[in-house]
Target: Protein zwilch
Amino acid sequence: MDCFCSINEPATESYSKPNATQISPSYVSIYTKNNNEIVMVYASAKQFPYLSDTNKNGTKTKEDEFDLTGSPLKLDLSLHTSLDETMSTDEPQLWRKEEFTHAPIDIKKARLIANSYTRSQSTLSKEDSIPQWILCDPSTEGKPLLLSVQSNKDEFARGIVCYEGSCVLDEVDIHNFIAEFAAHEKIDEDLVNVLVDCKYTVAGMSYGTLNIEEQLNTPHGGLTELQCEWSSKTLITPFISCKVNFEQELTVGHLASPCNGVWKSVCALYHINELLVDMTASGGNADLEKAYIRNLIPGMKRYNNTKRLNDLLNETEIYTYTAECPTGGCLCVTEDTTTLKKCMSDLNKKGSSNDFTYKLWDVLRDCETADELMTLLLQALTFISSGKIRPFIDVNNNSILSKLVLKLSRGHSQTSKVLKNLRSSPPQALSLVAQVGFEKTTWEYTRIMSLLEHSFFLAGVWNNDARSKETIEQINQTIQDMSMGGDFTLNPFENYGTTENSIRLDSESFCVEDTNDLTVDDFVSLKKHGLVTDKRDANEVPLIPDEIDISPWKNLLMRYTQVHVCLEHLYRAETCLRADFVQLKSMASRLLEVYVSDKSPIKTAGQLMNDPVIKINIPIANSTVQDHLKKSASWYRLELSKVDGAIKQGLKRDCKLVYVFSQLPVFPPSVWNNIDPPNEAVAEATTLGDLKFHCTKYTYLSNKVNRSIVL
Model:
């Protein structure tokens, strides 16, 4: 919960209450490198711009308990801080949206608040003590931005962040910083630990604080960043030797994402499965007009599904005997597919297959309600039963609906009865449609992800077999070992049927039933549900089982969601990093290990539909991002501290200095605008191309204390 204090409020009120804690704001975590809970104190800025009513000529009050080092540099701001109400909300910024209302407190009042909080914490253990941070007005001497205190019965820790001016990175001499730190702490320079890290914002913005509808409609579908870290004494990124982490935030289901071509299937299947479960529990009863298959939000495209179905039927009538099954069986993945972008673009334009029931699913999944889905399904089956078209069904399509379509298209003695029974049995109709959707979705994810990971592993994901428990490295090693003897493949999709055996032209094979197809029990079950008569002809009722097992669907939906998150990350990485398949393969393996496992943070499709923003932080090979590392980072952080053995030498206290060099303001405008505006000299230098970085300095000190009185 946010904790703020009016600057007219007594210093002794609030701040130590347990419910005043919150996760560290961005302008605190950039110095501490964590998001721990803190007590954050700031005034409330209700409008912009915020003008502090404190004395801008006030002098810094010296407090004995704040023994803090560092002397301010001459003020020197870059043009990047010229913020006003016309600033676009999509401009990059280091502070989060909700921090816009955080306003500073006068330094004198901040010190009183800190002293009061220190006394209240002095009897607590270290584990129970919570640090307090106070946002300060930087218009006073020393330009303080933050004060922090954390007191307990054994220690007294305090810190201050001050604005140090601006500079070009080439002007920064880390060796001087190390020498000053060592001299101040009275230790040798070789006892100073140096850690440098930086962050590159590759593309996009973070919208984690928006509601779901806003997140799905944002201008950017996510945020891609690179976090680098090294220990060499330089602020220039050593792009060969530094450690690089790939950080990415994205919004699943973002309206501009081409990955929605398959995500829409997952969402529709999730709703259908939920509906079938509810109908089973209630004995088949449901209000189909209010049972949503597709949740519409503002900005989402609405389809005329009746027209789309008619177009599909007309198209089917035209290409009945000319449709071909492409090499590999997939329209969006071919031998020429070199990027996920092209794959997903083709999926959205052409679909993934010429199979009629797969194309029908692409229409039905966009229905808004179950009632609309039922209406269009029966409309399609009625038209097919007229015998005007002979829909193309791929030989690998084993769904029951595909068999029904084939039989109806060739005429059937009890067509009207079958359609009547489907109309009166929504659970059966919905399960027939969902079965096609699950088969198609499994196939699509396998085909797409097989561009980057072997489908032998992916098959284990869907089947949940023992192989899926092995690591991806073990799977790939097994495949490699088995392939050593010569040509060998475990990819079931590499050699799909040719055109000849993919198009079923022999009508006899669908009208004449094999006597071994149905057992006596099967026949009795069908008869019980009114789907067959006592006499069994050669042209009898299509094989529609009385019940489709939906129990595996829940696990499949979870796996789809987990794999989809990987696909979204990979697509964005390919686009933003300009990476090829070879570079993405190792990332794909790492993502699958994180998301497709028992420890995965993703458990259900509904989870992402209700909270679509997801984040990842994984190591990445420097070679994949080397071109990006040659540019200037968004910010650099230099941390100086004592090595473990330094406590035996110099001052007996813990000390740490953190310098942050940033292109953009670290703090929101209500704070940053209280620093003097840039002068002409700085503006001219920026125009000439010398990139200026704001420098802020965090000084942290901690002493052991003995609070007991010895008589």
Q: What stands out?
A: The chain has two domains: 1-180+651-711, 260-456+471-611.
